[in-house]
Amino acid sequence: MINLTSVNLVTRCKVSIIEVLYTFLRILLYLLAFLNFHSIATYGNDLIYLTFLKLHSFSHLMHLGKINEDLFNKVIYPHLGEKRTEVLVGPQHGVDTAAIDLQDGRVLVVKTDPVFIVPQFGFKKAAWFAVHILASDVMTSGIPPQYAVIDLNLPPKIKDDEFEEMWIGIHEALKEIEVMVVGGHTGVYEGTDYPMVGGFTMFGIGEKEKLGMPSKVRVGDSVIMTKGPAIEATGLLTNLYPEYFKQRLDKETFNEAYNMYWKMSCWKDGLIASRIGIHLMHDATEGGVFGALTEVARASGKGMNVYEDKLFINSAVREVTRLVNIDPWISISEGTMIIVTDKGKDVREALIKEGIEAEIIGEIVDQSGDVMLVKKDGSRVKIEHPLEDPFWRAFFYLASKT
């Protein structure tokens, strides 16, 4: 099994005293566990990891995962090369896909992601997810992807049969969504390792009027959520650590949670909604549903009311997130699409007809940029963007237990 903790520690861009101390203490805990001091080791592991997170937040190191909005706005956004007028949607925090005006009534949409391959899933199964992570992002534009360019920087330990299985998996997943590879680069290099093994770009061309953009969001638009929260957190955790969950869930609940893996795509959600008409779509990745809602509000400059009595959650997701003590509403959820549209009822009905759970959970209300949760008793609570996604806490905890 790949130790992602070690991979991330090695590949961090800076090394600090905090990280060295953290690594030393983790080694000490492994020794305690080896000597059968399991309760001390388990408690100490959780305490040290949480302390590390707190100390790390005050350091000048870059955090794991996507960079934060402040760093994006300070370093990336002001330095994008030559500004071009035909770019309709450029890099923005909370916006998934760029859009370029082709000056003929059509637009070109573009999105890049890492190639994310987790061998524990099996190379073919992992390849399906790598394709759908990217396809889901492109589909948030309202324009389906049609072309792909892939750069594979593979680790030396990959075997020929594993590479073939992975590539055939990519081919089959792309064929399902009618996307063709038109270029790329493939090589094996020292210093690379799973799960990030390169870069993946998809392109789509479509009618300009169908393009979803923050500027199209209007007061009165409906806000739709598909599938519910923590789809990806549930699918990944149960597929990475199946024995842990088999021992703690009944068979039916485990199977439903385990098969949540195949719901970790919102390509179909977006395709259905775009045929009817959308103003903006965003998939609920890191930060989960509540993170996605706040990102939509910030990007559009509009406020949003979300109604507690309209929120829904899959029963297997509820059980898995309860077991690992994470909040499902702020946990990573590739597969969940947030759709802003003026055709809310029609979009919802079309999604349900195709077997996709969907509900109108709120509406666009004003220019504030705030997201307010309207509780069942009528009180209102502001939804803040989560500071961290609790999925990673659960991931590291289970990695230390199994």
Automatic annotation (TrEMBL):
Boundaries of every PurM-like C-terminal domain copy: 218-372
Biological processes per GO annotation: protein maturation
Stored Gene3D superfamilies: PurM-like C-terminal domain, PurM-like, N-terminal domain
Highest taxon, organism lineage: Archaea
Domain PurM-like N-terminal: from-to ranges: 96-204
Alphabetical list of SUPFAM superfamilies matching this protein: PurM C-terminal domain-like (SSF56042), PurM N-terminal domain-like (SSF55326)
Record key words, sorted: Membrane, Transmembrane, Transmembrane helix
Spans traversing the lipid bilayer: 20-41
PANTHER family for this protein: HYDROGENASE EXPRESSION_FORMATION PROTEIN HYPE, HYDROGENASE ISOENZYMES FORMATION PROTEIN HYPE
Family per record: Belongs to the HypE family.
Protein name: AIR synthase related protein domain protein
Lineage, opening ranks: Archaea, Thermoproteota, Thermoprotei, Sulfolobales, Sulfolobaceae
